[in-house]
């Protein structure tokens, strides 16, 4: 992977696990939660998938050894989803198994629409095997996400709600920001009302305020959900949420 530029370093916690652990300790000292993600999706060979899986397993071991917040994220195209679903499932099972041994939570990130159902199928097969230290992500831009949110909440699956960063076709996803935002608020309300612990991932002050207002109206305690933002983005908002007593994961 190419070395990040000085601009890019603002958004990457480290080029090595050790550097990332240093950033993680600083965040925890500021009262924030965290999740660590090894970059590098869209691999195309078995060797790359195996290497990415080994890297994630190492990341888990390093997280445990460092004593930082036990939470990691992974994309399934890192683990071989483009090669073979069974290979990907086996690799994800290895990660889930090690994470469960260490009481560590793993979030499966969502990618663009060609991968959504494939991702959910792999995840669901392992959920059915009893892995409960796990969750997935949903994109409000995608039409199907409201129905997916209801189904996942019914099953007790923890969701990270994002707007969506991919350019998607008009027959599958909202194209206008106002429609994406409106869907985000609708899904947020489904999640918070479910009683399951979910993550509201956004840098948009309007979405944050909508979440805080709904939670207050429904008397949902601040420790029953969390906000999430990317490392290095809107640090002012991150710190403000922590000061106001909200759970904030970077």
What does it look like?
- With 250 residues, the protein is of the alpha/beta class.
- The protein is built from eight helices and eight strands.
- An eight-stranded parallel β-sheet has the order 1-2-3-4-5-6-7-8.
- The protein is globular and about 50 Å long.
- The model has no long low-confidence stretch (mean pLDDT 94).
Terminal residue distance: 22 Å
- Across the major sheet, the strand order is 1-2-3-4-5-6-7-8
Low-pLDDT residue spans: none
Number of strands: 8
Mean pLDDT over the residues: 94
**What spatial form do the alpha-carbon principal axes imply?**
globular
Rg is 17 Å
Instruction: Tell me the helix content.
Output: 40-55%
Q: What structural class is derived from the secondary structure elements? A: alpha/beta
Index terms:
250 residues; eight-stranded parallel sheet; 8 helices
What layout of secondary structure does this protein have?
Layout: H1 17-29, E1 36-37, H2 46-66, E2 71-74, H3 85-101, E3 105-108, H4 113-127, E4 134-139, H5 145-155, E5 158-162, H6 177-193, E6 198-201, H7 205-217, E7 225-228, H8 235-243, E8 248-249
Parallel strand pairs: 1-2, 2-3, 3-4, 4-5, 5-6, 6-7, 7-8
Helix pairs in contact: 2-3, 3-4, 5-6, 6-7
Brief rundown of the structure:
With 250 residues, the protein is of the alpha/beta class. The chain contains eight helices and eight strands, in the order H-E-H-E-H-E-H-E-H-E-H-E-H-E-H-E.
């Amino acid at each position: 992977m190419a070395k990040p530029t000085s601009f890019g370093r603002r958004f990457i916690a480290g080029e090595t696990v050790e550097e990332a652990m240093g950033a993680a300790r600083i965040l925890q000292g500021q009262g924030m939660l965290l999740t660590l993600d090894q970059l590098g999706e869209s691999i195309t060979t078995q060797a790359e998938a195996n290497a990415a899986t080994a890297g994630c397993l190492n990341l888990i071991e390093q997280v445990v050894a460092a004593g930082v917040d036990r939470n990691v994220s992974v994309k399934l195209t890192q683990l071989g989803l483009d090669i073979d679903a069974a290979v990907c499932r086996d690799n994800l099972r290895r990660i889930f198994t090690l994470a469960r041994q260490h009481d560590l939570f793993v979030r499966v990130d969502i990618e663009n629409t060609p991968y959504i159902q494939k991702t959910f199928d792999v995840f669901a097969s392992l959920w059915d095997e009893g892995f409960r230290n796990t969750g997935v992500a949903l994109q409000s831009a995608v039409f199907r996400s409201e129905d997916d949110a209801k189904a996942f909440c019914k099953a007790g699956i923890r969701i990270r709600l994002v707007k969506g960063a991919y350019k998607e076709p008009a027959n599958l996803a909202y194209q206008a920001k106002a429609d994406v935002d409106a869907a985000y608020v609708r899904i947020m309300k489904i999640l918070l009302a479910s009683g399951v612990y979910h993550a509201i991932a956004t840098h948009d002050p309007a979405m944050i305020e909508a979440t805080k207002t709904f939670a207050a109206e429904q008397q949902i305690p601040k420790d029953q959900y969390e906000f999430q933002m990317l490392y290095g983005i809107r640090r002012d908002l991150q710190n403000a949420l922590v000061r106001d007593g909200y759970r904030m994961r970077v």
